[in-house]
């Protein structure tokens, strides 16, 4: 049985080897070594993870194994700091024990014990007034903790692989779209339905790069010329291509794929596209190519979809097209007296058509394929809602020409296409003064077998159908038609046509805006006339009714495959930190296994050893802090005044008993 120390009268110097248990120095602590070794191999998980990500780089990201890698990467920032702190803190303590057995300064031991986290590694040097090289190295070591966690997260990421293949695209050829010389209700029903659907479409469809059916909208070249200069190949930019910085990598990649020079002058600003019509040109990718020609495309189509977007198909093609361009001068042409009836017999006049409600179009009836001047058109509209005297009459004098363009289409995905650049067509075409109303289709055959009467019938039937396509939905016989209302309120022309309170004089919008909207209306009705089924979402090259006006152009499809991408620099950093952790863990195992003395650091119970004010069994001097804590876990101790009766108190940790009186520290008492 161990002796009890006799209060303050017994000093450490009076103890001899016979007091307490005896035990030799530790030889090999196998249990501690095995525990430390088991921890030291855990960082090899991150080494294996890094090399697994490296081996899978470039593989389909949606594959099960790659999805597991991404889940592991998301979990890594949580695991890595815990493992790093565990190994690094144990290693620092093992080094402190090693130095203590061989002799070291109190400052060195305390600095190591106070640097077992990033925060304490920073604050301890300031507390100890030691700002040397060693504290800096310790801080750098702890800084590897968050760095390694981020590397473990970012080693594996999503990337893109691109493969470009050639492909054919079918589209409605507006250069080869003959007018249907029929005036039957069966023919007009789908035409008017397509036209009125376009007229009623939302503003996002009228002003977007695609209409509501996915047809690609054609910008007005005349508008682009006002806002920018052409590049070296004559291209004007619009849409997506005009919105990227022409010095950026993304622009270079995009322009390289599309084949547009990177030297356009867009200093005048990015234009807001003004489109030629309310509907776009129908097109589709020709998917009837043999499988052996494009095996990758066929593989992409059947590839299983993962949790994210696995494959994206970008496409690009150029095509030739044309459109009506109207240049008008509009002004007030007097007023109409109240009660004036519509001009009698106007529908029987040559080259004049109306909707029977004070909306008239007259055109140059004598314009032929041999004419050198543009066709003249006059449009007259009464501000018909007001029944008061003085209704204003608007009259526009216009010139109708044809603009031939080459459009570059880029599709960022299968449902996101736009014309990104346009230029004047480089091919041979009829004179701009001629138009489809002169019967120049098909294939610019100006010497076809069409009779002069048939050619004259084209503008007559076209304008007659155009003027009456939307009807007159007002109850006022003198009210505006939806076509007239489009000039004033293009966002909702049908609501305007039933509003009997407003004044709608068309001349008030000015020449430029009137010309633009008249151009859009004429082109929309022409497209509805030549391809009503295709423009409403039913385009197929083999369409029985409209397949003859389909054309084919060559383009490219770029297959973007989402793959796993290994960041090699991050991988190297992660592997280096993980191997260093593994070595630190092994070093900890060695130092703990070869420690000769007890582990007295970082244990409060060790501070009670040979304390003359603590009256407990002494035990063996080879007991480490953990064993001593178990033995003394129920012992009550206190930090206070162990000499409460003396004039000057003594501060120490003791066991308050009748043998060892203790008192709490007082503010009005002196202590030593």
TrEMBL record:
The chain crosses the membrane at residues 33-54, 74-92, 126-144, 568-591. The keyword Membrane applies. It comes from the Eukaryota. Keywords: Membrane, Transmembrane, Transmembrane helix. This is Uncharacterized protein.
């Amino acid at each position: 049985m161990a002796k009890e120390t006799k209060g303050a009268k017994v000093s450490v110097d009076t103890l001899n080897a016979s007091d307490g248990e005896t035990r030799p120095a530790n030889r090999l602590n196998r249990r501690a070594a095995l525990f430390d070794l088991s921890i030291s191999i855990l960082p090899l998980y991150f080494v294996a993870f890094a090399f697994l990500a490296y081996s899978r780089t470039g593989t389909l990201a949606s594959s099960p194994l790659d999805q597991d890698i991404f889940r592991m990467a998301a979990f890594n920032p949580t695991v890595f700091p815990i493992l790093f702190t565990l190994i690094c803190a144990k290693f620092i303590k093992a080094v402190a024990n090693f130095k203590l057995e061989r002799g070291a300064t109190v400052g060195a031991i305390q600095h190591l014990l106070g640097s077992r986290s990033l925060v304490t590694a920073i604050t301890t040097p300031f507390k100890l007034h030691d700002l040397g090289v060693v504290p800096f190295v310790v801080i750098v070591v702890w800084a590897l903790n968050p760095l390694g966690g981020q590397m473990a997260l970012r080693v594996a990421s999503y990337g893109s692989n691109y493969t470009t293949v050639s492909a054919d695209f079918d589209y409605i050829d507006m250069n080869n779209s003959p007018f249907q010389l029929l005036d039957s209700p069966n023919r007009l029903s789908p035409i008017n339905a397509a036209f009125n659907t376009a007229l009623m479409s939302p503003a996002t469809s009228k002003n977007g790069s695609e209409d509501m059916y996915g047809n690609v909208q054609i910008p007005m070249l005349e508008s682009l010329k006002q806002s920018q200069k052409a590049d070296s190949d004559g291209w004007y930019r619009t849409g997506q291509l005009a919105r990227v910085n022409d010095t950026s990598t993304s622009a270079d990649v995009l322009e390289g794929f599309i084949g547009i020079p990177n030297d356009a002058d867009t200093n005048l600003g990015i234009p807001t596209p003004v489109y030629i019509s309310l509907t776009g040109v129908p097109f589709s990718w020709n998917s009837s190519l043999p499988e052996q020609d494009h095996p990758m495309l066929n593989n992409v189509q059947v590839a299983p979809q993962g949790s994210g977007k696995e494959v994206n198909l970008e496409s690009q093609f150029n095509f030739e097209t044309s459109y009506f361009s109207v240049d008008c001068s509009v002004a007030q042409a007097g007023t109409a007296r109240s009660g004036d009836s519509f001009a009698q017999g106007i529908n029987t006049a040559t080259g004049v058509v109306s909707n029977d409600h004070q909306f008239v179009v007259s055109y140059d009836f004598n314009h032929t394929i041999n004419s050198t001047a543009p066709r003249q058109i006059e449009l007259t509209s009464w501000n018909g809602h007001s029944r008061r005297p003085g209704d204003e009459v608007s009259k526009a004098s216009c010139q109708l020409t044809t603009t031939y363009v080459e459009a570059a289409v880029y599709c960022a995905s299968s449902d996101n296409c736009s014309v990104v650049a346009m230029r004047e067509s480089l091919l041979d075409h009829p004179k701009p003064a001629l138009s489809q109303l002169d019967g120049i289709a098909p294939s610019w055959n100006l010497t076809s077998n069409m009779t002069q009467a048939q050619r004259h019938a084209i503008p007559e039937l076209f304008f007659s159908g155009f003027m009456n396509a939307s009807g007159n939905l007002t109850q006022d016989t003198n009210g505006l038609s939806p076509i007239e209302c489009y000039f004033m309120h293009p966002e909702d022309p049908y609501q305007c046509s039933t509003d009997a309170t407003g004044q709608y004089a068309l001349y008030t919008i000015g020449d430029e805006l009137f010309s633009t909207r008249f151009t859009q209306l004429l082109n929309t009705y022409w497209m509805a006339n030549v391809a009503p089924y295709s423009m409403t979402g039913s385009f197929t090259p083999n369409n029985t009714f409209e397949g003859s006006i389909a054309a084919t152009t060559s383009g490219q499809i770029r297959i973007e495959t989402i793959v796993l991408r290994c960041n090699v620099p991050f991988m190297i950093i992660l592997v280096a930190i993980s191997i260093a952790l593994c070595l630190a863990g092994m070093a900890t195992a060695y130092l703990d296994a070869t420690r000769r003395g007890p582990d007295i650091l970082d244990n409060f119970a060790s501070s009670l050893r040979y304390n003359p004010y603590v009256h407990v069994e002494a035990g063996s001097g080879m007991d480490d802090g953990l064993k001593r804590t178990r033995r003394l876990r129920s012992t009550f101790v206190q930090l206070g005044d162990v000499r409460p009766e003396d004039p000057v108190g003594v501060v120490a940790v003791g066991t308050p008993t009748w043998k060892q009186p203790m008192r709490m520290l007082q503010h009005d008492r002196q202590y030593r």
